[in-house]
UniProtKB/TrEMBL annotation:
This is Response regulator. The keyword Disulfide bond does not apply. PANTHER family: RESPONSE REGULATORY DOMAIN-CONTAINING PROTEIN (PTHR44591:SF3), STRESS RESPONSE REGULATOR PROTEIN 1 (PTHR44591). Keywords: Phosphoprotein. InterPro entries: Bact_response_regulator, CheY-like_superfamily, Sig_transdc_resp-reg_receiver. It comes from the Bacteria. The modification 4-aspartylphosphate is found at residue 58. Residues 8-127 form the Response regulatory domain. Transmembrane segments: none annotated. It holds the Pfam family Response_reg. It comes from Brevundimonas fontaquae.
Length: 168
């Protein structure tokens, strides 16, 4: 196992008790530097002032929530690190929320109530198995494809191509 002592983590959640729990989990993993914020704008300011390696943010915060924070990190001209791994945590695991977070550029997702295992699994994923970063007209963030399968080698790449034929 790698040492996490030198990792700088930004933890943003509007619930102080949740920050205390998440911070205790991070400290138990030997992470010494945890910067805390109660909402996204403060978190973004901390990100600009400190060398943050990883952010863990809550979905629901006011006035700037975790999705808006992620979009700022990914696309703002004054973002110090658009490639920052961002783990989203939320008590709302509906598919639409997961997709909204994913499409904003979130790297990983944790459902509350969090467990130490879930947090450590997500830390391991962003550190040991980072996904390639994508920058397109409509999206900035880690590759959203999670399959380890090899690229499709058949005659049709997209479902929209099913009506086309390879015959000349």
């Amino acid at each position: 196992m790698i040492s996490l002592k030198s990792l700088n983590v930004l933890l943003a959640d509007d619930n102080q008790n949740m920050r205390a729990i998440a911070s205790a989990v991070l400290h138990s993993a030997d992470i010494r530097n945890v910067y805390e914020a109660a909402e996204g704008a403060t978190a973004f300011d901390l990100l600009r002032r400190h060398p943050i390696d990883l952010a863990i943010v809550d979905f629901n915060m006011f006035p700037l929530d975790g999705v808006e924070f992620t979009r700022l990190v990914r696309t703002s001209p004054d973002s110090p690190n658009p490639f920052l791994p961002i783990i989203m945590m939320t008590g709302h695991s509906e598919r639409s929320r997961v997709y909204e977070a994913r499409d904003a550029g979130v790297t990983e997702f944790i459902v509350k109530p969090i467990t130490a295992k879930a947090v450590l699994d997500r830390l391991n994923a962003v550190i040991m198995r980072p996904r390639p970063f994508i920058r397109s007209r409509d999206y900035v963030g880690p590759c959203r494809r999670r399959r380890d399968a090899p690229d499709y080698a058949g005659p049709f790449r997209r479902s929209s191509e099913l009506g086309r034929s390879n015959a000349a």
